[in-house]
Amino acid sequence: MICVPNYEQSYGEAIDLYTKAIELNPNNAIYYGNRSMAYLRTECFGAALKDATKAISVDQGYVKGYYRRAEAYMSLGKFKLALSDYQAVANVRPSDTEAKRKALECNKIVKKIAFEKAISVETKSIADSIDFESMALEGDYTGPTLEDGKVTLEFMKQLMETYKKQGKLHRKYAYKILLDVKQWFMKQPTLVEVPIPDEAKFTVCGDIHGQFYDLMNIFELNGLPSESNPYLFNGDFVDRGSFSVECIFTLFGFKLLYPNHFFMARGNHESHNMNQMYGFEGEVKAKYTTQMSQLFTEVYNWLPLAHLLNKRVLVMHGGLFTKDDVTLDDIRKIDRNREPPEDGLMCELLWSDPQPQNGRESSKRGVGVQFGPDVTNNFLKKNKLDYIIRSHEVKNAGYEVAHDGKCITIFSAPNYCDTMGNRGAFITLKGKDMQPKFTSYEAVPHPDVKPMMYANSLLNMLP
C-alpha cells in the first residue's frame, strides 16, 4: 500500500464522513469508492474490497471501483482476481493506457506464479547451496569485517556507522549473518519464554518497517542492546521503508551478538508474499542478489511467533484468535516453518486486531479476526496472564492501551511511510512488577529515498 500526504486521523475522519454520507444516500457509488480508498490507506483491505464491490454493484460503469477493488485484491495476494478487474477497466476503456499497463503487469505476476508452481519440486534449501567462504573481499571494501566469523560489538558499531553513511555490508558477511541466524532460529521454540529479573529493564519495540534512521534513534534514546539492556522487536522489521536491508542486518547482528538478550518475533511482513509486493524483495535484489532474497524467506520461516515474558505477559505481532480455549501449549505446537496460512492460529497471531466492543468480527484487513475485551479477558484468565502486547497498527502516539489495560499496541515507526504523522514508541518494564512504561518520539531525518521505492509498481500509483 502506498500512503498519500496526509495523516492517519484524516483517513479515519474521511471514513466516518463517507459512512454518514452513505447513510443519507446508499446508492452513490462515489461514496463507497472514496471510502474504499481511505480503507486502503489505513490497510483495511477487507473493508476496502467490500466497499469497492458495493460501488461496482451500485454503478457497473464506475471505473474507479474496479481500480480500488484490484488494489485490494493485490494487497491480499489475490492476483488473478486483481487481473480480472484491471482487464475489465481496459476492456471498457480501450484508450486507458494506465489500465492496460496494470493489466499487463498483473498478468506477468500471475504467469510467473503459475510457472513457479509448475516447476516447483522438493529441493535442498538455499542455505545449503551457499559457499560464502569462496566470496572474495574486493580491495576497495572499507566496511566492517567479522572477527573469526563472529559478530562483535565493534563490528555492530562499525556496521551502524556504515549504514548511516549509506554504505553497504559486504555480501560475504551478509550471507554469513543470514546462515548463522537461521541456525539459531531453527533451535528456538515457536513460543519463546523470556525470564526478566526483578530489577532488570526489558524493552519491547513494535513495527520498524525499514525505517533505519528511526531504529538508530531508538538506540540513541534507550541505549544499545546488551546483556544488561535486552530488547524484543515484535515483527514487521521490513517492507515499505526503503532501508529494510539496513534494518534487518542490524537486528540480526544484535541477535547473534546477544542471542539470549535480544529477541525477534515474526510479523505478517516477514513472508514471501508480502515482501514481493511491499518492497523488501526488490530491495534485496537491488542491493544484493535474488538468491539472498530467497534465503531471507527461509530465515523468516523460522522466526518465533510469540514471546512469554516472566510467564505473565504474552507478546505477539497481531493478536488473538477466532476460537475460545486456545492455550499457550496450542501456540507452542504450531508448525511455523512455512509461509503464513490464510487462517488458523498462526495467521491470527500475525494478523488479528483488537476492537473496542465485545465479541469478534471479521477483520477489516480481510485476514485474521477482530477481537473484543471479553475475548482478551477470557484468554488471559485461561492462561493465567496479566496482559498482552501486540503491534501491527499505526497509533498516533506510537502506542495504545485498550481492553481495560489488558491489550497494549506498540508501533515503533514514526511518521509511517513518511506521511502518516504518527509518533513512534517503545515499552520498558521491569521484571518485578511488569508495569509498562511508554517512551514516545518523533521521526528523525533520513536520506532522500522515498518509501516503497522497491515495491511492486502496481502499488505505486492509484487513481
UniProtKB/TrEMBL annotation:
Name used for this protein in its record: protein-serine/threonine phosphatase
Gene3D superfamilies tied to this protein: 3.60.21.10, Tetratricopeptide repeat domain
Domain Serine/threonine specific protein phosphatases: 169-445
Keywords carried by this UniProt record: Hydrolase, Manganese, Metal-binding, Repeat, TPR repeat
Organism: Frankliniella fusca
Keyword Magnesium among record annotations: no
Top EC group: hydrolase
Cofactor(s) required, per the database record: Mn(2+)
